[in-house]
Every structure is written in structure tokens, then in C-alpha cells.
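Aim 2 progress update. The chain analyzed this quarter is reproduced below.
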Amino acid sequence: MSSGLIERLPIKQLVKSCTVKLLNSPKGNFLGTGFFVAPDKLATCRHVFFNNGNAVTTHFRVEGYEGEFTLTDNYLQHDELDLLVILLNTPIASLCINLEAAASQEGDRLWGWSYNISFPEGGGLVPVLQEEARHNGWDILRVSRDIIKQGSSGTPILNVDNGKLLGVTYWVKDSDALIIPSLYFKAYFKGIYQENQQYHQVAGYWEEARRQSLPHQVKRLTLIPPIDNKDVIGRTEDLEALRQRLQSTNKVLLMNGIGGIGKTTLAKLYINNYADEYDKLIWIEQKEGLVQDVATNVNLLKSLGLESMSGSDAIDIFSQAMLALQNFSGLNLLILDNATQSIREIKDSLPHGLHWHVLLTSRQIVGSFELMKLGRLSPEAAKELFLNHCHKPQEEKALGIFLEKLERHTLSIELFAKILNGHWKLETVEELGEYLDHKQVDEEMLQTVVEIEHAKGETQLYRHLLSAFDLSGLTRNSELMLMLQRLAALPPAAEGYPVKDLMEWFGMEEEAADFVNRLQKLHKLGWLTQPGKSNYGLHRLIGIVISKAHPAELEDLIPLVQTFSDKLSIDQTKDNPIHKFPWAPFGQALLEALGEAELEEKSKLQNNLALVLQDLGDYQGARELLEKAMRSAEQNFGVEHPTTAVSYWNLGTVLQDLKEFISARKLYKKALRVFQHSLGENHPYTQGVISWINKLDQLEEGKNNE
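Predicted C-alpha cells:
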């Protein structure tokens, strides 16, 4: 039979917490096995406690507790069968077997559990049933004593498919052993059965154990950023601590630490190692607001059957998505990477309860969530990480001093190790440390970065990152710097971006070989991450430093502006707006990179992004962009140009959504006049704006009739 229950540690821990060894004294003879049906009620076979009709003093051992009691009249027993429930004076167990008989038809597959009969040092649970047995309705099941061993009386028998109790073993001298169906508990110990079921409705732990005992396909509802375990150094204890914290709380867990310390890496590592313990996995990286990030996540919406919610507000899409997640059964994992203070506004909407583990990662202390601080690497792990990326021999004491200078910060260690490894002149960490000590950085720029990022505790980190640019020679390599500058204009992504997409976005398809070589060189130097074989990304902190200290020239961003303007463009005759949602963060990131610069291409990007935001229900955000696009169009094309008239029309639709009907009508009239004059009465644009004026008339008429 399958050995899944034996191999999966959570099941072993669960059953171990429910099952006890019964002896006639602390170091005496083994009498049998018992198991908890409530925290203060122990079930076993009656004959275990009676020797020639007399009660015996019994010692029991359970994980974390040892006790001794004498069986007197504080028990309940079955009138006919060999079943007994001892009533303890105080709650002992934190868990108990689920008595519910999941099925009672012939053919149910059974698993049995017992303590190792020989009790070797450190002995634990072993399967009593070495082959499949079958539960046959209400009948007591007779099985060979080759299956039920002597001393196994009182062992719980579980259904292999759902983990619920189906029976209790009874070893009969000079006869076949018996399995007594758990349905007898329901029939003869009604009060205990009811208490047991009420307990399980609240506790819910057995459903988790059942889920973990069954082979299942983990369903990834979103893209899960990949990671290779061998690339992570020094986080073994943190990984175990994270697992214990998630499994011991029903609250949202916040993993907090300074930027670049490894929060995202540890979250990836957790999924990589424990994905099969969950039914569904969701990873959402906060790029804008969480509401928008959920509403623009097409993979998630498709998985939840919400792809048809085009035209709905982002908050409506978000609410429906959270409701769908909350209704999931089993055990599921939601990771929200890079959470900001904005999560306070929607924290009560996050899925919660027994079916969910929810993990936030953030540089900030956000909300009142349960907190797990992620600290710096240990000195030993810091050295191992450095030497993993720098193969030039280093004196151990000097290396330790240098790593303390870097404050044993994960990102800095990896970056400077790679820089030193590839440096044409520097050979030792002493030389590297001397460079950092004497390197003068632009203090005004440093403080600007720190203030913008609200990172007062990370000043030294940013100082090192600013120094690293000159040290690595990037400022003298225009091709590599241009690639970093363009990557910094994209929204950060824990999973990185496929090479083929980057080539398309940057307009570099014809230079594919050179493009890939530059990516590989930047990764080798430590500036790029490579989450997947063909994916490259920029760490969020490095992107911040580039965008503030080494921003791209405007003309260098034009290919990206044109690319994402086209991707955000909505053709109302064939496009489903929801398919445009994923590109909204790209448009927003690019506009932030462009700053206050005035470009014709920028106006188009603002306009197209605004219409997508309008479909997302972000009317205020759409309004701000369209007002900027309108002013830019007036400046670049003049007030009588059709392009400018389109901006009037688009802004009017958003003002109408905001119920600013008078302002909307004025803009429609301006657009209509230009279209009539330049395009004619029958042009689709002319007829389109007329239809919007008619809609506005109907809205105002309805408002006046109220």
C-alpha cells in the first residue's frame, strides 16, 4: 500500500501528538496504545486496563507530557465491545483524533498507526498495517495477526483517502485480531462524539493533516518566481523559523528587514521547499497599490474565473478576488512581496483563517501584523557567500573586517564579491575596503535617495551602492549603463523578465547576440539577477540608485515609451480591457522615469494609460494623466488638432464617471467642434463624441427626475 502517511512529516507529528504509550509503571511493561478523543479524554481497549477484572495503575507517555493515573470509576466503556474512554482530571493533549466515520461502505482503504513495539531509543510511529485492509460496513473486521501485532490494541485506524478515524485495533489472544469501526463511538459514546466534532469544527487541524496525506497537484494561480536552493547561503535557520511561524498562527505574518537583506529570496525559498504542502499558491508583488496589482493580475483573475470582469472598478475586482480566495478549502499560501503602508486599507479583506497562510514581505513595519524580523547574515554565512562569488584568495581576518564594513548585508556582499572577482586591478578585500573608505559620493544625491525611499536606516547601504558604480566601471561603459537605465525604468519583478521580451521592448531584436552578452556580463558583475535560465531582473534597490543617481536620457527611453503606449492602446472594437491591465504598471513606471519632461510620445502614453486606469476604476488617476496629456497635446499640436480633440473627449469621459457633468459637456463640445471642422460630420470620431453627449443628456435627465 502507499506509504504517503508515513513519509509526510506533518502527519507523523499529528498522530504522535494524538497517540500515547500505555505502561504499567514509568519503566514498566507495555500494556497497549491509547489516543485522545478530546484534550481530556483518552480512548483505548478495555482489556488494557483490567487484569483479571481488576483495574491497574497505568502510566502514559505522550509527546511533551508524562502522567500516571489509576483507573477507578472515572471512565466510560462499551457494553459489548472492547472499548474504553478514560476521563482525565485536566486537559493533556493539544490535538485529538477525528472520530467522524468518513464512510462505512465496503472497500474503504485503511491505515493503522502504533508506537514501535520494541521501543528502541528514539522510537516513533510505525505502520501496524503492512498491507491493505478493508472496512466492511458496520461489521467488525477480522484481520490476520500478521497485520495487527501483539501490543497494538487501541491503535487508531485511519481512512487512507481522508485521514479520518475508521476504527480501533483489538489484538485477541489465540485468534485473529479485530478492527472495531469508529461508528460505534458515534452510537455508544454520543456525548464524547459530539464534543469531538465540535472541537474539530473549531480546531480544523485534521483537515490539514488529511490534505497533506493525499497526493495532490499544487495549483499555482499566479506566476511563482523561481529560485535554486544552492544559490541561497546562510538562511537555513531562518527558513525553518519562517515555516514554524506560518504553521503556528492563523494571522498574517509580516517578514520585515532592510532592503536587500533577502526577504524576497527567503519567501521564494519557502515556496520552493514547501509548495507541495499547499493546495494553491499565489504570489503578488506590490508594484503600485495592492488593489491595482490584484486587479491587473490576469493569471490570477483567469484562475479565479474573473477574467470577464472588464469594465469593473479595480476595487470591485479586488473584492471579488479576495472573496473567491477566502472560499477555498484545503491549505493555501498567499505571499505579498514588497508590501507598503497602503496595505492597511485592505488588510481586513485578505484571506484568513484555517485554510490560509499569508506572508507579507516589507522594508517597513506595516499595520499590526504578526512580525518576523529578518536580520543580517551570520559571520560564517557572510564569508561563505562572499567566497562563493569571489574566487581570489582572501585572508580570513581581513575578510571578516570587510564584511563587517558591509554590515553583513546580503546584496552588498554578493555585489562587491562579484566586482572584486572581475576587477582588473584590485585583488584583496583590504584594497576594496580602502576604496570604500576614501570614495567620495555625492552627499546631496545620497540624502535625496534616502529621503525619497524613507530609508533613514539604510544610508550606509546606499553609500556603498553609489560607490559600486564607479568601482565596477559601469559609468565608463555606455552600453551596459544604458541597459541598466532602461531596466530601471521598468517595474521591478521578482521573477525577472524573459530575454525575448526585453529585446522586443528595447527594440534590440536585430542585435540579439550582443544583447544577451550584455545581460550575462551585467549578471556576472552582480548588477542583474537571473531568477530563471532566460530571465533577468534588476534588484529594487539597484534600480532606485540608477534612477536617482544615473537616470537615463529622455531619448534613450523613447523605444520603451512607444512599446508600452502601443501595448496600453485599447481598440474598443476588439480588445478586452482586462488584457491591457498587466501593462498599467509599466506605463506608470515609465512616466515616473520621464519626470516632468515634455515629449509627444509621452502624451500618447499618458492618454493610453489613463484609459486603462479608467477601466480599472481609478478615475482620479486617469483624470490626472489626461489633464497632463491634454496640456501636452495643446502645446505640441494646438487646440484645433484632432489629436488634441481626442484628449478633450477622453478627459470628458472620466469627468463624466466622476459625475462632473458640466465640465464633461464643455470638453465634449470642444472635441465635437474640432472633429466636425477637420474630419467631417460622418467621421467615426465625430459620431462617437455625439453619442457620448447623448449619454450625458440621459444621465442629467435621470438626475433631474429623481
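The CA atoms of residues 192 and 198 lie 10 Å apart. The chain is about 45% helix and 15% strand. These observations will guide the mutagenesis experiments scheduled for the next reporting period.
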